[in-house]
Here is the input.
Amino acid sequence: MTDLQARLEAVLAEHKVPGATLGVLDGDDVSVFAAGLANRRTGVEATPDTLFQIGSITKVWTATLVMMLVDEGVLDLDAPVVSYLPEFKVGDPDVTARVSLRDLLSHRSGIGGDHILETGRGDDTLERYVETCADIGQEHELGATMSYCNTGFSIVGRVIEKVTGKTWDHVLRERLIGPLGLTHTNTLPEEAILFRAAAGHVKLPGDEEEQVAPMWVLPRSAGPAGLINASAADLLTFARLHLDEGRAPDGTQLLAPGSVKQMQEAQIDIPDRYTLGDRWGLGWILFSWDGHPGFGHDGGTIGQRAYLRVLPEARLAVCLLTNGGESGTAFRTLCAEIAKERAGVAMPPLPEAPATPPDLDLAPYAGRYGRLNVDAELRVEDGRLVGAFRQSGPLAEALPAGDRDQRIEAVPVDREVFVATVKGLPSPLPMVFFDFDGDRPGRFHFGARAMTRRED
Amino acid sequence: MSELQGFVSEKAAELEVPGVSVGVLHSGEEQYAFHGVTSIENPVEVDAETIFQFGSTGKTFTSTALLRLIEQGHFDLDTKVKDLVPELRLKDASVADRVTVLQLTNHTAGWSGDLLTSTGDGDDALARFVELLADIEQVTPLGESVSYNNASLSLAGRIIEKVTGLTFEQAIRELLFEPLGMKHSFFFATEVMTRRFAVGHEQHPDGSITVARPWALPRNAHPAGGISANAADQLKWARFHLGDGTAPDGARVLGEKLLRQMQEPTADMRGSALGDAVGISWLLRDVDGVRLVGHGGTTNGQHSSFLMVPERDFAIISMTNCGPNGPMFNDALTKWALETYLGVEDVDPEPLVLGEAALEEYTGHYATIAVDAYITIEDGQLALRTKVKPEFLAQLREAGTEVPEDEEPAILLGMLPGDGDRYIVTGGPAKGMRGYFARDADARVSGVHAGGRMATRIS
Here is the structure.
């Protein structure tokens, strides 16, 4: 078998990742490998028990908490959120009245997804967050498609708080961290500080190399959407709960088998079926590799990125927790090798730009598109489709001015699928157009988010 | 290797302190010495960048910030707190009406000072903490005697918030850290944790050492001692208080008169664990003909000392990450440094040898909000045993603090010559610590001043 320690070291070096842990669950064997530095400023090395921010993989934990409360009859996935949170309100009154937990857990609510803002470090952070949602507009009609929605998970977190009378952090400790026996998992900086905690690395203007990010953590209001810190082994134990029909390592039934199954069932198709997966379940992203079903999630915070993929037939789970660099490519490389060797499953490659692009009239693709806090303009230049993206809102204001703008160049693979090269990013990303009116697309999907055409 | 580094390495190794950071300011020159590691679980070498929680020396930051606001004309030292925080309620309404800003800074407010309840991590932590003061016992009459008071500093922090419209932490950044160029001083775990930082430890009676949990103090305790910094920033603080009130770049931060006033006695202590008198937050002690001005602090497993000799333009700061050996280290280092750099000898006075009959009147059960203290006679000496109250213990554990089950050894006290029922600790980690017994109007022993707090006699 491949020497994964050596492979990890080589892949991290090749893709300039400061430090990482790689976890593999193969049958019942767990192995964790570590390489590089947890923190370039202090020189502290990454070790197998180093805590990384798992970012949005947190969403699956929050979804699991919801399903535990559904099992107990406390929550109903299809009841309107407003029935639990009478004070809940978004911009569209009809969505306010109808949106359900199921819609939020599968990113199909259409509620503007990147409403990330500081509402304090206090235990009232989610309550205050929900108050700020009253004017958020829709990216698409409720249930029409999916667009990645952080906002929805902070709202779900508040629902959990409301029905339990405890903070989301507390419920997570009480219902998952404790019963799963996780010793290296927590949610607050005050807790993480007593462990070997990785720092994220980013490139600031003028930097040759990535360095420790100026902020360690996102606002606490993003907790249920992405603020868990965990070791690779603990993350694999969590994944195992979803392989073992909801049983903890000590045999305790934490989640009903039916609920585990339901989380892995498709709720909505993902227009861009290449980047992450082709359907969204409850919390989980679902994919099919080579005909084999799988589920997983990614996470990204300020300079830290985490990846988890599970192939239930082979009982194989792979996670990579990283703190900078071209970690996406590093993960795809390692995960493809491990899936092939351990499960005989080929991980499909990302679409590539054809040597000779199809003869396509690009003019109908041009125009202005947008979503909450992001505007994009696509233009045809010298027979190529180029785009300028601009971020706004509180999170963007924390970024250096140059990082608020992104330039892309997209090459068609076919009428729907383009491959976009993003300036400053190492590997191209799929860009998928949909909702066509004749030749004219009404939307495109990029980075799991729907961008909708703005009529002039 | 410098003489300072030699002493630090040898003493820290002898006392088994995991990590130490020391700075000396002598005739304008800075010297540093470092030892050991930040944590026994995740050992990283302590160096010039390493950040320690220095605890209660932070009170002098709160007071200095108050003085800046006074100088800006917002209020005076004698202003009634009630004029600034009208919602203040105390058990004794007349105290709430009368207590002044100065009394918050010199530990003479008289109410139980060790309220440790956490009021959360929100920006409203201090506002909510002030509400809790309504239920706190008044232990000594307002202004009458010094009894160490963390809670009064949190109230002082709330004044700063009210006057500036900022959170306490942001106000301290703007009023002190930024003008004084203190770029390695922080309040929050999220700021500290991407840097090199120390975690606290506890050394148990069997000699084993474990990491103290949790790392952070409740946010409402920030004005009483919630800052973490490296050694160089601690010396910047000393340099400022030894100076004329200007920052290193020449900008005026505080008038020289007010800065000096902080180091003049405002309340007497007749010899206690804290010193002879309190200035404005600074603790004052006269030794071998010179005045020592200092503080120091204790958090969960981190112990620091901070000492200046203004008339000799000298300062020494020490930060350690373990107790109870950290304070022993700090004590030994400070004595050594005073003698080595200044020729000042800090010699403990000799206690009297008294018979049991003479000691009898001091024995009994005493208590503060947090601890019960029992004084008995053992082998002809007064022996003090403290026990954290069960309800206080429950509160600590509720807040996530791991409290060791270790039985605290008895502390032996020797009475000192002269008036005032003064004593000195004659052995163990607290050797040399002083205190005194209080008497009521009938001259009966009514309390014991220990560890800087007045414990009231129960029986």
In short: The mean pLDDT of chain B is 94. Chain B touches chain A at residues 41-42, 44, 49, 120-125, 188-197, 199, 211, 213-216, 219 (CB under 8 Å).
